[in-house]
Each structure stands twice: as structure tokens, then as C-alpha cells.
Amino acid sequence: MATEHFKTTGQDTTTGSQSHSVGSSEKVRTLACLAGVSLERGVPLEDVREYLNDPDTLLWMDVLDAGPDELSMLLEEFGFHPLALEDVAKEQQRPKVDDYKSYLFVVTYGVLPVDDVAAPQTAELHLFIGRNYLVTVHRRRLPALEEAASRWMRSGPLLREGVGYLVYTVLDAVVDSYFPALDAIEEDMTEIESVLFSEFHEGHMQRLVQLKRGLVGLRRVLSPMRDILHVFLRPNHPFFSAGTRVYFQDVYDHVLRILDALEIQRETAAGATDAYLTISSNRLNLTMKKLTVVTVAVAILGAVFGAWGMNFAYIPLSEPWWGFWVVLGGAATLVAGVLWLARKQKWL
Predict the structure, then answer these.
(1) What is the pLDDT of residues 76-89, one digit of tens each?
(2) Pairwise CA distance, residues 18 & 45, whole Å
(3) How far is CA 221 from the centre of its chain?
(4) Strand stretches in 96-197, DSSP E
(5) How far apart are CA 4 and CA 40, in angstroms?
(6) What tens digit of pLDDT does each residue of 86-131 get?
């Protein structure tokens, strides 16, 4: 069984001559399964219509960074609706599935590997699903598609399941791309929780906010995948064989598992944020109590010495030599009493 990945469309495998040019030679790649047995890579574009007319042939075309030439080719060769191609061109679509009777148009998102787990990057992926073909269009390179191609070409007898198993392989790889990002976020969250009550500072708070934003973003693009899979799980689907339902159910279970994990991590981040705010509030209260004690002590000293030093003709204890020490000792006693009371109330 072949183990190579996609091969560029239009490249003659024997002579190396270019047979059809659409935009960049790296943009369009094809892979065909003939009668569920053999694989053929690099189908020339002028032969695509012939492959599509053969019900025993399954064609997978992958288009990277589609421009006007590639979109025109899709319109000419496959007859896709202009509205669907407009969604492909504009991007930033909500994950969805549109039924155009002769094919399905699906919008979903995969996760790209990044260094900063707090800011996961997603890439929009469009799928056109027909009875014997799959067309994937995306602006950025998706490692999940390379993984899907490798897995599909090693599927052996499962190739006979037709387009349903191919779609499952692609969606399963796309959904699995969420797991590394989720694991990295969980590890980062655990590290923050470990220092929550000791060395926690404002930088950790900013990190928590970033993680929450990343979790919300992942959930926003993954949650609609449930509705897409509901369509695929319908009995007697015109494009998918009955044997592929169990595979789509597996993808659906993965989606639910990831959504549950995202929700748990989101709640964990919210709980850590609330705990940080509570700790900060408690620390502020302790600081305010200490400042209150200091204020009272200073106020006592200010009141005593302010009153004793007023410019009156006669002030008690102002004439004896020991008067100053009595006033100083009384003020010190009052301050000591305030400090003792604050200590007793655990303000210090």
C-alpha cells in the first residue's frame, strides 16, 4: 500500500512535464482511489472530469490558498455554487454544513501548532463532499491534513467504504489537532494553580485571562461541529455508507470529550481568577487593618502632644520637670494599649 502523501496536480509522473497550470504548482494536489483497491497520485486536471464520472473512483483534491484561478477551476470542474465559493474566498465563516443536494459544503476549523499555548491559532477548512469526491480548501497549511492523507492511504480494505471513510479520516485528524493544545493549556493551568497561594502575581493573572480567552476561542469554533456530525449521522445518508456511521460517532465522541475538557478548564480558569481576586481582597483588608492601627497610634500621639503644646497661659504638667515624662509615658501607654488591642483582634 502506498505511503506517500499528496502529489502536486498536473505533474506528469513519468516525464515530469507540466500538463495543466492553475496558479502555483504547489496549490492543488490530488489523490485518487481506484475501485477501492489502488491509489493514484497527481491526477491531471484535464482528467478530473473523467475520474468524477467513474462511480468506482474516489477523488480527493486539496487546494491551498485558493486564488481566482483555483476558484474558477472548482466552478468549472465540479460546478460548485457561487455562494459556497464566495464563502471560501471571504473566509471567517461560522462552522456549518450546507446541503446543495449533489454535494455538502462544510466549514470547520483545525488547530495549528504554536509556541504560546495561551493564544492557540486555528485555520479555517472548507470541505466539498460529493458521492465520489472530497475537495478540501484552506488558506494555511494544516498538519492535520497531512496526517489524514497518511492514515487514509494506509487504510487497506477500509478504502472500499468510499467518501464517508475519507471524510471521517479528515475530520478525525482535524478534531485530534485540538488535543495537544488542550493538554498544553491544562499543563499551564496546573502550573499557575500551584503558585496561586504562594508566588502568585499580576503576571499570572494576565496569563489566566489569556488562557480563558484561548479556551473560549477553541470552544466557539469546535462547538458547531456537533451539528455538522448530526447531519453525517443521519440514517440512509445519500453519500455515506451505513458502515461509516460508527466512525462519525467516534468523531462525535471526541468532540464531546474535548468540549467537556474545554468547559472544565474554563471553569478552572474562572475559579483561579476568583481565588486570586479573593486573596488580593484579603491581603488588601489586612493591609488596611494595619494602616488603621498605625493611623490610630499616630492620631493619639498627635492629639496628646498637640493639646499639651498649645499656647495657653497655663497647661497642666507644663511647669514640673517631670511633666514631660508623664505626658510622654501616658501617650506611650495609650499607643501600647491600641497595639495590644489590635494584636488581640489579629489585626497585626
Answers:
(1) 889 899 999 999 99
(2) 11
(3) 8
(4) 96-99, 104-112, 121-129, 133-138
(5) 10
(6) 999 987 888 999 999 899 999 999 998 877 766 788 999 999 999 9
Which domains does the chain possess?
7-279 (3.30.460.20), 283-344 (no CATH)
Q: Which residues pair with 287 in a beta bridge?
A: none
- Interstrand relation of 133-138 and 57-64 (parallel, antiparallel or unpaired): parallel
Amino acid residing at 259: L
HSE-up of 259 (CA within 13 Å, CB side)? 14
Closest residue by Cα to residue 246 from 222, 229, 226, 263: 229
Question: For residues 205 and 193, is the Cβ–Cβ distance under 8 A?
Answer: no
107 and 96 Cβ atoms separated by less than 8 Å? yes
Q: Yes or no: say if 168 and 247 are a contact pair by the CB < 8 Å rule.
A: yes
Can you read off the three cell numbers belonging to residue 265?
478548564
CB 36 within 8 A of CB 109: no
pTM score, whole prediction? 0.75
Select from 32, 69, 72 the least CA-distant residue to 48: 32
CA distance 22 to 72: 9
Cα angle 62, 240, 60 (rounded to 5 degrees) comes to 15
**Which triple of cell numbers denotes residue 19?**
500538463
- Per-residue three-class SS string for 80-120: CCHHHHHHHHHCCCCCEEEECCCCEEEEEEEEECCCCCCCC
- The grid coordinates of residue 82 equal 457561487
